[in-house]
Specification:
With about 525 residues, this protein is of the alpha/beta class. The chain is built from 16 helices and 20 strands. The structure holds 6-O-phosphono-beta-D-glucopyranose. 6-O-phosphono-beta-D-glucopyranose binds next to loops.
């Protein structure tokens, strides 16, 4: 496994004192001498965030950037220029971002002195992103900031707006000449695009085409935050860093694979967006197909961005495309209804704010995919995700074949199960049968466990920390590529088409349960059952 390691350049002297005196977990000694952690150099750069007043910026991006500064992984020559329509001064923007960091910073203390240093690099430029004149103003502001903050010619744009703005922003960046660095200040220009990449295959192709007119593919970083999760990266380490498991990793030994991303919360304030998206688009088309690709891809020859992405893309292209008549057997939508959970009344999806009381949206989706290649022919990949399920858990369960012949008299058969726990209790467990103490030969399932927290005893970076730093370092390994996005839309498009033409009896599961019964029936056709963690 390649450990993703970074160093920041030209760290201001005062950060040393601040960070060390506050007992930063990584800076007990001089961090510059810690070669293991600081292998990769991140150059100075300016990050321009479109949608800077939005939820993602406040919840994820700024806390991640602050945390990188806290961990001394951020270049001193940095600037963050936020844009949104709301008029604000730089200071008002800084105050707002401070509030967000104090509220959303996970697992870390807030340090006021460090914040003051960090906040000096925050700037704001209000304006309508649909207005070409705004880009002229942005360009001037960026020019001033670049020289004030010595960020060199390196600029990273981040599209964190409503998806309907992606194409206008990209076109306006191109028209303003902001898609490359100025001749007198050479450097790189990159753009991070948040999901969703389109609403379906056709609109995703239109978006890709528009992006291609303005940016080269090597400049484009399509973010799928699941790929930045430590535990998803660890799947690669587990598979390709060890010799034990890979020989078992195919249709001869694996009976089926289950990938579950269950959330216990509802749609909250995102009813409007979610009503148009649904679980299949929101989670399966992107995050879970990327996880499936990581589990099922062939080993890359080298750990380099395109070598790894080529293998993921190949796997996604090998997913069997369902015929319309196969969809009902292999894909199940669900929608949560109201329930009383923990003494509280929880609304059904149709009762959530901003949601049409007749909405046909899937807040749950379960799909059986097959991979058409030699390694996986005939092995079902069961993938499901839903809101308001019994608990929050994301994991991958690889179910191996039973012993071919049982010599013991026992009620307990198999299963030999390998569970890769993505969140919240990150780790890996192998389940097998063991002899129960005592006379006779009674067998019982037991488990061998690896737990991230206790084995490494340190905090893992969040997905956004990892991915932002990767983009600054020019490493696109964990970003998706146009061909991958297209292949995953192709895999779900027949389901979207059939579902949009069908009227389902919804809601069909109660909030706080494991989803609709029809999803159990889908597995029962092949004699399988969901493993409800
Ligand atoms: C987002 C989806 O991409 O991922 C959300 O839009 C979902 O609906 C979220 O809640 C889940 O991410 P995580 O990291 O909390 O599992």
């Amino acid at each position: 496994m390649v450990k993703r390691i970074y160093v920041f350049e030209n760290c201001p002297k005062e950060w040393d004192a601040t960070v060390i005196s506050m007992g930063n977990p990584i800076s007990g000694s001089n961090p510059f001498e810690d070669r293991l952690r600081f292998e990769r150099r991140v150059p100075p750069c300016a990050i321009v965030i479109f949608g800077a007043n939005g939820d993602l910026t406040q919840r994820k991006l700024i806390p991640a950037l602050y945390r990188l500064a806290y961990e001394r992984r951020f270049p001193a020559g940095f600037a963050i220029l936020g844009n949104s329509r709301t008029p604000m001064t730089d200071d008002q923007f800084r105050a707002k971002m401070r509030e967000a960091v104090e509220k959303f910073l996970e697992d870390s203390p807030f340090d006021a002195a460090l914040w003051d240093d960090f906040a000096r690099g925050l700037f704001y430029c209000s304006g309508d992103i649909a207005d070409p004149a705004m880009y002229a103003a942005l360009k001037t502001r960026l020019g001033e900031i670049v020289s004030e903050r010595s960020t060199g010619g390196n600029v990273l744009f981040y599209l964190s707006t409503q998806p309907s703005h992606y194409i206008p922003v990209v076109e306006n960046l191109g028209a303003a000449g902001l898609n490359h660095s100025p001749a007198d200040n050479p450097g790189w220009t990159r753009i991070i695009i948040e999901k969703p990449f389109g609403h379906d295959l056709a609109s995703s192709n239109v978006l890709n085409e528009a992006v291609k007119q303005v940016f080269r593919e090597s400049q484009v970083y399509r973010i799928d935050h699941y790929l930045g999760k430590e535990t998803v990266q660890n799947v690669l380490a587990f598979r390709f860093g060890n010799g034990i498991f890979e020989p078992l990793w195919d249709r001869r030994y694996v009976k089926h694979v289950q990938i579950t991303a269950a959330e216990s919360i509802g749609v909250g304030s995102r009813g409007g967006y979610y009503q148009e998206a649904g679980a299949l688009r929101d989670m399966i088309q992107n995050h879970l197909l990327q996880v499936m690709a990581t589990i099922a891809m062939e080993p890359p020859a080298v750990f380099e961005p395109n070598a790894v992405r080529d293998e993921r893309a190949k796997l996604l292209r090998s997913i069997k495309i369902m015929k319309p008549e196969e969809v009902h057997l292999n894909a199940v939508p669900g929608q949560y209804g109201p329930a009383r959970i923990g003494g509280e009344d929880v609304p059904g999806f149709r009762g959530e704010k901003g949601v049409d009381p007749e909405a046909q949206t899937d807040t749950y989706a379960a799909v059986t995919f097959f991979v058409e290649n030699w390694r996986w022919a005939g092995v079902p990949f069961y993938i499901r995700s839903g809101k308001r399920l019994a608990k929050r858990v994301t994991d991958i369960a690889i179910q191996f074949n039973d012993a071919p012949h049982t010599v013991f008299e026992t009620a307990a058969r198999g299963p030999n199960l390998l569970i890769l726990r993505i969140q919240p209790e990150e780790g890996i467990s192998l389940r097998f049968l063991s002899k129960q103490p005592g006379s006779g030969m009674q067998l019982r399932p037991v488990s061998m466990d690896f737990n991230y927290g206790s084995s490494f005893g340190e905090r893992s970076p969040t997905a956004y920390e990892t991915l932002l730093l990767d983009a600054m370092a020019g490493d696109s390994t964990l970003y998706t590529r146009q061909d991958m996005v297209e292949a995953s839309w192709k895999a779900v498009q027949p389901i979207l088409d059939v579902w949009s033409a069908t009227k389902f009896e919804l809601p069909n599961y109660e909030a706080g349960t494991w989803g609709p019964k029809t999803a159990d029936d889908m597995l029962a056709q092949r004699g399988h059952t969901w493993r409800n963690p």
